[in-house]
Amino acid sequence: MSGIRPRAPWACLVFMLSAGSVLPGNVIGQTLGPSFVTAGYSLTDLGGITDLPASHGGLALRKNQPNTLYIGANAEFSYAAVFTVGLVRDPNTNSITGFTGPATHFVNAPNLDGGLTFTPEGPMLYSQYPNDAIGETWPDTSAVSTVITPFGTSPSTGGLAFIPAGYPGSGALAVTSYNASQVYRLPYSVDATGLYTFSDTTAAEDLSGSALGAEGLTYIPLGSALFPVPSMAICSYASDAVWVYAVAPDGLPDTSSARILISGLNEAEGVVVDSLTGDMLFSTFLGSPHIFRLSGFQNPTTSITATPSGTTPTFFPVPSSDRVHFNASFPVSSVRVFDLAGREMLHTVGPMSTSGSIAISSLAPGDYIARLEGMGRQGRAMIVKY
After folding, report:
1. Residue 370 domain boundaries
2. Which residues pair with 138 in a beta bridge?
3. Angle at the Cα of 23 (from 228 to 264), degrees rounded to 5?
């Protein structure tokens, strides 16, 4: 059928995903990896949205409108559109618990797919499938569509997101390819009207070993449990899952760090982080689409500040067999050491100082992330035990 995503050959494979714990009170089938359950994360089915057409696409929240959800529907069709709906929040936790009423048409967004975001200049950007394009719509509803295949992407787009401040590659635009299971760093420039123009990709990562059929992506709030380094999440339509990765220096995923966050999320499509709570909202595509909320992340309004560029702490010697020393640009009161799966292996507390050392003789040989904390700031660096 024209407009609807054809299944790629690998989309019919059965994936043997690591089983997590089925969460009481939620739809059977959606599960979290066991380590995330243990760390206090929880998944909640918020249900469907009244009068919102099926085939949900990307979703977005604006900081100046925290109680309005923007969400795509009739995704991939020429008559796709973005709708809005009001949000209900828990008076104690501020988490989104439901919707205030029926969805309302906001603006047409032809062929919208799993990516939807608002630019700092005001216009809305969204990924377009199957024409491998990025659409841009202004508040007055004027619009433009730019095919990005000439810039090195593989048809067709799945999702898109700006890399936030405090993360490697901040300010850049990351774009996924659904068909090729790739993610790209796509440079852009903006003119006085807010029009985005694009140029050749400067980096790419292959997600075919994890997030097949890559769709929406987002960046995980800094300081969240089991995420000792800046990290990101990518929806995998083909494997009905959400994968998480450490962020590489170019702002794209380090695929060697891939972990399944959620499995059984049928045709996972879009994702957005709630700036008031750090919760993630996910949309699903076909069938009876629901919105899911994943809670347990660090609240962005209280998260510790990321280390500014150029002030990354130094550790020496690397590698080491028994003890490593550090220098930092801020007074350090606590050092935590994590393995690459996000498990905390060591935690030392001492008097505040910009230099010091930690004993690592108890660690097994391998690579680790050391996180220094103090005065509301943090810094991270790799250490190696041999």
Report:
1. 314-385
2. none
3. 80
Residue 343 lies in a domain: yes
Among 295, 329, 349, identify where a domain stops.
295
Q: Are residues 198 and 338 in the same domain?
A: no
Produce one character per residue of 215-251: b if its CB has 16 or more CB atoms within 10 Å, e if not. bbbbbbbbbbbbbbbbbbbbbbbbbbbbbbbbbbebb
Most trustworthy range by pLDDT among 18-22, 23-27, 234-238: 234-238
Number of domains in the chain: 2
Residues 362, 225 share a domain: no
- The CATH number assigned to the domain holding 324 equals 2.60.40.1220
Instruction: Please give the radius of gyration of the chain, using alpha carbons only, rounded to the nearest integer.
Output: 21
* pTM over cut 0.85: no
Residues 370 and 248 in one domain: no
Residue 336 domain-assigned (yes or no): yes
Same domain, residue pair 206 and 243? yes
User: If you average pLDDT over residues 350-379, what whole number do you get?
Assistant: 84
CATH code, domain with 251: 2.120.10
152 conformational bin, left if phi > 0, alpha if psi -120 to 50, beta if neither: left
Asked whether residue 34 falls in the same domain as residue 144, the answer is yes
Higher-confidence residue: 35 or 381? 35
